[in-house]
Write a structure and sequence with these properties.
43% of the residues lie in helices and 14% in strands. The protein contains 12 helices and 8 strands. The chain has an 8-stranded parallel beta barrel with strand order 1-2-3-4-5-6-7-8, surrounded by 7 helices.
Length: 275
C-alpha cells in the first residue's frame, strides 16, 4: 500500500501505530520499503551519520536534494519526508516556500519537515498553501542545539512544557499534517498526542506517540560516535560489517580471493596468440 499524508491521518484515527526510519541512499531505502516501513525520513542527521559533521548545521540544500532523490528512487510505498536544512526556511517565508518546492521537484520528496513552533507557523502555512505537505518538529530541535546549550531533553519545566503544548497546537493550526516530538518526557508527549488531531511521531518521546522513528544506523549499531538513551539496538550490523571487512582483507592478503568461481574465463588459444 502506498503511504501518504492521508494514510498517516487514517492511522491516527484508527489507533494504528506508524513506523518510520531514516534513510539516505537508494539501497537502504529499498530494503526499508520492502520490509514494510510506512515512512522514511531523509533527515539532516545525514550530517552526523553520513557526512561526519559534529552537528546538522553544515548540511545544505544540495545535500538534502541529492540524498532525497536517491531515497525516493528506492522507496515505492513509504512516504518520503525530507528535512529542510538549517537556514533554508528561517530567513523569509518566500525563501521557505522556494526551498520546499526544490525538495519536492528536485529531491522528489512526498513531504518536507522543518523545526520550530509558533515562530515558523507563517512558513508552514505558506508551504502548505503551495500544495506541499509539512511535518513539524518540536522538542529537541537539532538545528537549535547552540541555543539549547547542547543535546538536552526539552519540556521538563512547567513553562517549557506549556510552551511546547502551545506550539504543538499552533503548528497543527498552521496546517502541518504530522508532528515529530524529539527528546520530550513521555507523559508530556502523550498529552500532546491526545490533544492533537494530527499524528505525532516520537523519537525519544515515549510510547504514547502515534508513531516512532529512529536513525537506522543507531538501531543497527552502525554509528558508534554517540548513542542516545532512547535508541534500541535491533541488530549489531556494525560488527557484522567489520567482521566481513576483516575476512575480505585476510583473503586478499592470502590470495584466497578471488578464486576460480570469481574469475572470467577465456580460451587458452586466445592467450597463446598473445605471446
Amino acid at each position: 500500500m502506498k503511504n501518504t499524508v492521508v494514510t498517516f491521518q487514517k492511522a491516527k484515527q484508527e489507533g494504528r501505530k506508524i513506523s518510520m526510519l531514516t534513510a539516505y541512499d537508494y539501497s537502504t531505502a529499498k530494503l526499508e520499503d520492502e520490509a514494510g516501513i510506512q515512512g522514511i525520513l531523509v533527515g539532516d542527521s545525514l550530517g552526523n551519520v553520513v557526512l561526519g559533521y559534529e552537528d546538522t548545521i553544515a548540511v545544505t540544500m544540495e545535500d538534502m536534494i541529492h540524498h532525497g532523490a536517491a531515497v525516493a528512487r528506492g522507496a515505492k510505498n513509504a512516504l518520503v519526508v525530507v528535512d529542510m536544512p538549517f537556514m533554508s526556511y528561517q530567513v523569509s517565508v518566500e525563501e521557505a516556500v522556494r526551498n520546499a518546492g526544490r525538495l519536492m521537484k528536485e529531491g522528489h520528496a512526498g513531504a518536507v519537515k522543518l523545526e520550530g513552533g509558533e515562530n515558523v507557523c507563517p512558513q508552514i502555512r505558506a508551504i502548505v498553501n503551495a500544495g506541499i505537505p509539512v511535518m513539524a518538529h518540536l522538542g529537541l530541535t537539532p538545528q537549535s542545539i547552540h541555543a539549547f546549550g547542547g543535546f538536552k531533553v526539552q519540556g521538563k519545566t512547567e513553562a517549557a512544557a506549556k510552551k511546547l503544548l502551545e506550539d504543538a497546537h499552533k503548528v497543527q493550526e498552521a496546517g502541518a499534517f504530522a508532528l515529530t516530538l524529539e527528546a520530550v518526557p513521555s507523559k508530556l508527549a502523550a498529552m500532546v498526542t491526545e490533544q492533537l488531531d494530527i499524528p505525532t511521531i516520537g523519537i525519544g518521546a515515549g510510547n504514547g506517540c502515534d508513531g516512532q522513528i529512529l536513525v537506522y544506523q543507531d538501531m543497527l549499531g552502525m554509528f558508534s560516535d554517540f548513542t542516545p538513551k532512547f535508541v534500541k539496538r535491533y541488530a549489531n550490523v556494525g560488527e557484522v560489517m567489520k567482521d566481513a571487512f576483516r575476512g575480505y582483507i585476510n583473503e586478499v592478503e592470502s590470495g584466497a580471493f578471488p578464486s576460480k568461481e570469481n574469475e572470467y574465463a577465456v580460451d587458452d588459444s586466445v592467450i597463446e596468440k598473445l605471446y
